[in-house]
Amino acid sequence: MVSKNQKEIADKFEKNNSYSLDDAVRMVKELTYAKFDESVDLAINLNVDP
Q: How far is CA 45 from CA 4, 21, 35, 39, in A?
């Protein structure tokens, strides 16, 4: 069962679209409904051969 908030969030972005970092951060801040401080983890692969 999908909540009203989850449905609203799903309608506001495309799953198969790549967003810039600025756009992604903006969307995370706008699309929050939690009553606590949320956090976001970021993993970056630099493909550097030391």
A: 35, 15, 32, 20
